[in-house]
Amino acid sequence: MRLQRSLEVWKMGRVNYLDALKLQEKLVSDRKFGKIPDTLLSLQHPPTYTLGKRRTDHNLLVPEADLQSMGAELHYTQRGGDITFHGPHQAILYPIISLRDIGFGARKYVENLESTMIELASLYGVRAHPGNKCETGVWVGDRKIGAIGVRISSGITSHGLAFNIDPDLNYFKHIVPCGIADKGVTTLKRETEMELPTEEVIHEQLVSCFAKSFGFTNLVWKENISTLLENQEIK
């Protein structure tokens, strides 16, 4: 008999990056001590640039003051990966899951995040693929459609993936996306000939692809995000 594995999924809508970061930190602690089950945050951010723990500031091509004038924030994080952009019309997943419980190592985890986005793209007739060596993420030809930056602490994951549905690509002109200078960025809307459904539908499809890739058989959907934020005392 196949083991039933549950995943609690929070549909958060648009959330400030720092709020999401603080929430992840609290949820990681709770997951370590078994206070919560495996959890997935599904959300978007307002325009935000983030740098990973390698602090590759040279890949930010404009002064931070210019980012502020265009309504974007800059944040430093402890995730892996290089500089990236998060913004409206981008589907973001932050898994807070125990890799030990599912028997995954770090490489297998990242590969399955890639598979999650590849599967979503295929639903719209887009042939995406993993990057070459040192090119973590998902690509359509030489154009990046999905970014990955993760942190693993005591076997518990945080941060995650960002899939471009239809973000404003002008924001990417101010950085060297993921530190790769000779390749571009693309979106699902640009690559498909199909008419896209609502972004809520695409977010749900991405969650379903994630669950399939990681073997979660029971999704418990949560929508009252104010309750979660209050419970985690980050307001």
Structure, described:
This protein is of the alpha/beta class and 235 residues long. It has a single domain (6-220), classed as Bira Bifunctional Protein, Domain 2 (BirA Bifunctional Protein, domain 2). The protein has seven helices and twelve strands. The chain has helices at 17-32, 64-69, 99-102, 106-122, 188-191, 199-214, 225-231; strands spanning 6-14, 39-44, 48-51, 73-76, 84-86, 90-96, 129-130, 138-140, 143-153, 156-164, 184-185, 218-222. α4 packs across α6. The longest helix has 17 residues, at 106-122. It is globular.
Architecture, according to CATH? 2-Layer Sandwich
The helix content, as a percent range, equals 25-40%
Note the gap between the termini. Answer: 43 Å
Tell me how many strands there are. 12
Mean pLDDT: 89
Q: What's the order of the H and E elements?
A: EHEEHEEEHHEEEEEHHEH
Q: Provide the number of structural domains.
A: 1
- Measured by DSSP, the beta-strand proportion falls in 25-35%
Question: What's the CATH superfamily, by name?
Answer: Bira Bifunctional Protein, Domain 2
Radius of gyration, whole Å: 17 Å
Largest beta-sheet details? 9 strands, mixed
Keywords: Acyltransferase, Transferase
EC number: 2.3.1.181
Domain BPL/LPL catalytic: 34-218
Protein name: lipoyl(octanoyl) transferase
